[in-house]
Amino acid sequence: VNCSAAASIVPQRRQLFRSSVNCSAAALNLPYKVQICLPYFFGIIFVVMVCERNINLNTSVMIERKYALSDSLLLEWADINSENLTKDIAKFQEFDPQEFPETLPEMIEQRVTDALIEGGDSNNKALLGTKTLTVRQAIQNCKDYLKDLKYWVKKAYPDNPVIQRQLGVNRIGSIFRTQPRLIQFMENLPGVIKMHRTRFEEVGTPVDLLDKSAPLSKALRQANKDQEKQKGDRAIDTEARIIHLNSLYDLLQKLNEAAESVFKNEPVRRSRYKVPKSGNTGSDTDTTDTPKIS
């Protein structure tokens, strides 16, 4: 959050602000110490207000489900309603032909089909799991590589801890602490190896080992990008799914409300359009966090 706008008031305006507050304080016959503190007090309030405004502007609003049901129960309710409606659509049309067209049963059935084909969050979760495994493997490949390189670094520079650390010796814990830190190290490593290549070749370091850092770095970076993209895609798909299911719920609720009048003398038929009761609420998604890599 950028609060610099509040802290970078030009000196002229700041002086004008203090003078105005001091004049008001003097007019109220407040004690001198209070008059001195008031400008700073109001300045702090102003900074807090600007920061709060920026926080509100920068916080994305997550779309929420309108229904206190699991997604699967909502779809089941809709599917049953579409079946019941094929027999009852004439009565709903008689009640309100504009709101309940003849094709409404097929429309509801198609919306349920679309939601079922989309597959819910499980598909995206499986894809994200695959990307995560690829990242883990790329990280492990880098770790194995640095272990193999360590012997040759120490042989080439046995008495130079600075160069040893530059090439990752005794820094594994720090380097692998986060994905961004590892990516940065691996991006720089081919250049560092190039600087010392002559010395490495003098001590007999295998050429394929010296050339291996660049493709490892590329694979790690691509795996990380694929993982982050899938996280973003999952959030977008989740939002689209909620919008779709909320729309379906609104339609079912219209039927439920209309059924109150359409079947006012037929309590059994009316009950078929009521919202089902369930102890489960919200999404069927397993909310367990994806295994953390970074």
Concise account of the structure shown:
It contains 13 helices and no strands.
Q: What general form does the structure show?
A: elongated
Number of helices: 13
Strands, count: 0
**End-to-end C-alpha gap:** 23 Å
Largest sheet: none
How large is the radius of gyration?
32 Å
What is the helix fraction of residues, given as a range?
A: over 70%
- Indicate the mean pLDDT: 82
State the order of secondary-structure elements, H for helix, E for strand. HHHHHHHHHHHHH
What structural class do helix, strand and pairing data support? mainly alpha
Low-pLDDT runs: 1-10, 55-59, 285-294
Strand fraction: under 5%
Describe this structure in words.
- By secondary structure, this protein is mainly α.
- Helices cover 74% and strands 0% of the residues.
- Mean pLDDT is 82; it is low at 1-10, 55-59 and 285-294.
Question: What descriptors fit this protein?
Answer:
74% helix; 294 residues; single chain; disordered C terminus; 13 helices; mainly alpha
Topology:
Blueprint: H1 4-7, H2 11-27, H3 32-58, H4 71-95, H5 104-118, H6 121-156, H7 161-166, H8 172-175, H9 179-195, H10 197-202, H11 207-211, H12 213-262, H13 267-271
Helix pairs in contact: 2-3, 4-5, 4-12, 5-12, 6-12, 9-12
